[in-house]
């Protein structure tokens, strides 16, 4: 069923009882050409592009819970291409271009809203860094405008410009950045993959990876053994656990990142705003809630709920920037387990086990990467060659030290990325 205005009218007039299921609910087959472990944004996008671009349809996505229940449905929905370093710059640029055609491609409203992202800076040193980043973005073909304090005051009048501790010097404006509805992205890719013949199998946890003579042959799951010629691990915060099933030890730490939303308010924040002195980012959802987040919890954990001190820390950063926040009532908070890599950049690569591929290390920033990651991981799995846009995301950079992309310039210290 294609979604369009006529369909909405027709279904509306007949009581909305005749919509088709968005995707089938098949039982697992005994074998597939390709198995994707993990039904988050990256896994579903990979399956979609395997089918849509490479004609690979004997594919299954195995998800231990429900589709979209992981980080893809838990993030603060920021989509941007404002990375500075070679390797990341071209990858996120590629991803943003895919975002810009995504709703047409998937025939699904993912509510992609290019409302602009403004990263504030608070010192001359930060201004220099913002200018360098902006130049890198422009060289990459993306958009960046350096705002002075007066421009910020005009665009973001609700900020506290009079505070003396972290004065606002200006901001780096990325007009094509913005937000999207996170779980709709998972649903759109799921529906698109299913329509092309991919089996989406939920409540199916992978508990083992079968390897014979250095070659992957399938997986063990809570719904039985399934054979496969190729297997992709795309499980975000659970990457180390699943890779351990194949005897691998990854350079990944799992940490909880929390997010918060207030009660619905009238439109007040038109852009995505980030605060360069504390770690804080905020936007307003279409329902009116102020959606925001900050640092991750500083200890590794697999529990998807966060701690109160970090909540306080985020609120403090937010209130310093926007005292008006103190008047809003917090409605909900939640946590997701993010896969932190030592250089803050992802891994999209083959492993030493033939037929076994790895996609992880997205840190706080993998939502915006969903289209680019799915597209380039599908390319790698289908052709055994890295996609140009993701060619630097090698696993062995952590072994050799060559090719590290330390985007934040903070070194190999997980809790600072
Ligand atoms: C609070 C928060 C805010 C964030 N904000 C942003 C943001 O504003 N912008 C941005 O770009 N990024 C953001 N991120 C990061 C982004 O959400 C993640 O990097 C990205 O969603 C991770 O990829 P995914 O969607 O595939 O992960 P997930 O949705 O977590 O998918 C992985 C899936 O694997 C499944 N799985 C795990 N183990 C197994 C197994 N053994 N067998 C089968 N299935 C398994 C899990 O159940 C899960 O569904 C944020 C993350 C969090 C937590």
Description:
This protein has 417 residues and is of the alpha/beta class. Helices cover 28% and strands 26% of the residues. The chain has 11 helices and 18 strands. It has helices at residues 5-13, 41-54, 88-100, 102-106, 124-139, 149-155, 182-195, 239-244, 308-321, 370-383, 397-400; strands at 31-37, 59-62, 78-79, 117-121, 145-148, 170-174, 178-179, 199-201, 206-212, 215-221, 224-233, 253-264, 272-275, 280-284, 289-300, 330-340, 347-350, 356-360. Strands 1, 2, 8, 9, 10, 11, 17 and 18 form an 8-stranded mixed sheet that branches. Strand 10 and strand 11 (224-233) form a beta hairpin. The two termini are 43 Å apart. The chain binds flavin-adenine dinucleotide (FAD).
Global structural class: alpha/beta
- Say how many strands there are: 18
Largest beta sheet, briefly? 8 strands, mixed
Which ions and ligands are bound to the chains?
flavin-adenine dinucleotide
Q: Count the DSSP helices.
A: 11
Task: Identify low-pLDDT runs.
Answer: none
CATH class identity of the largest domain: Alpha Beta
| Backbone CA Rg | 21 Å
In terms of quaternary structure, the protein is single chain
Summarize this, please?
The protein is an alpha/beta fold and 417 residues long.
Topology:
Layout: H1 5-13, E1 31-37, H2 41-54, E2 59-62, E3 78-79, H3 88-100, H4 102-106, E4 117-121, H5 124-139, E5 145-148, H6 149-155, E6 170-174, E7 178-179, H7 182-195, E8 199-201, E9 206-212, E10 215-221, E11 224-233, H8 239-244, E12 253-264, E13 272-275, E14 280-284, E15 289-300, H9 308-321, E16 330-340, E17 347-350, E18 356-360, H10 370-383, H11 397-400
Parallel strand pairs: 1-2, 1-11, 2-8, 4-13, 11-18
Antiparallel strand pairs: 3-7, 4-6, 5-6, 9-10, 10-11, 12-15, 12-16, 13-14, 14-15, 17-18
Helix pairs in contact: 2-7, 2-10, 3-10
């Amino acid at each position: 069923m294609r979604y369009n205005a006529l369909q909405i009218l027709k279904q509306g007039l007949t009581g909305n009882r005749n919509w088709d299921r968005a995707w089938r609910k098949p039982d697992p087959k005994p074998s597939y050409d390709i198995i994707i472990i993990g039904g988050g944004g990256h896994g579903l996008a990979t399956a979609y592009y395997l089918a849509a671009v490479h004609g690979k349809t004997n594919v299954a996505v195995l998800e231990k819970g429900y589709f979209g229940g992981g980080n893809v449905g838990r993030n603060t929905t920021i989509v941007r291409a404002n990375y500075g370093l070679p390797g990341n710059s071209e990858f996120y640029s590629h991803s943003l271009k895919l975002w810009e055609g995504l709703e047409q491609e998937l025939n699904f409203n993912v509510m992609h809203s290019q409302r602009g992202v403004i990263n504030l800076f608070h010192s001359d040193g930060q201004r220099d860094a913002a200018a360098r980043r902006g130049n890198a973005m422009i060289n990459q073909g993306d958009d960046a405008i350096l705002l002075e304090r007066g421009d910020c005051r005009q665009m973001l009048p609700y900020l506290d410009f009079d505070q003396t501790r972290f004065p606002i010097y200006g901001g780096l404006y990325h007009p094509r950045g913005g937000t999207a509805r996170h779980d709709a992205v998972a649903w759109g890719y799921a529906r698109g993959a299913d329509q092309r013949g991919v089996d989406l199998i939920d409540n199916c946890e992978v508990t083992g990876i079968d390897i014979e003579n250095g070659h992957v042959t399938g997986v063990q799951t809570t719904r039985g053994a399934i054979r496969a010629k190729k297997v992709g691990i795309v499980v975000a915060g659970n990457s180390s656990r699943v890779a351990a099933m194949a005897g691998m030890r990854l350079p990944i730490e799992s940490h909880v990142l929390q997010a918060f939303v207030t009660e619905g308010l009238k439109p007040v924040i038109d852009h995505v705003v980030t605060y360069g002195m504390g770690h804080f980012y905020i936007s307003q959802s279409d329902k009116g809630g102020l959606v925001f987040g900050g640092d991750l919890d500083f200890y590794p954990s697999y529990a998807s709920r966060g701690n109160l001190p970090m909540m306080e820390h985020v609120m403090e950063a937010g209130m310093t920037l926007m005292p008006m926040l103190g008047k809003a009532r917090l409605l909900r908070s939640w946590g997701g387990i993010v896969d932190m890599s030592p250089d803050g950049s992802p891994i999209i690569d083959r492993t030493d086990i033939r037929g076994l591929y790895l996609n992880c290390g997205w840190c706080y920033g993998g939502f915006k990467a969903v289209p680019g990651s799915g597209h380039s991981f599908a390319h790698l799995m289908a052709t055994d060659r890295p996609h140009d846009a993701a060619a630097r995301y090698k696993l062995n950079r952590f072994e050799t030290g060559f090719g590290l992309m330390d985007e934040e310039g903070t070194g190999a210290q997980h809790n600072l990325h």
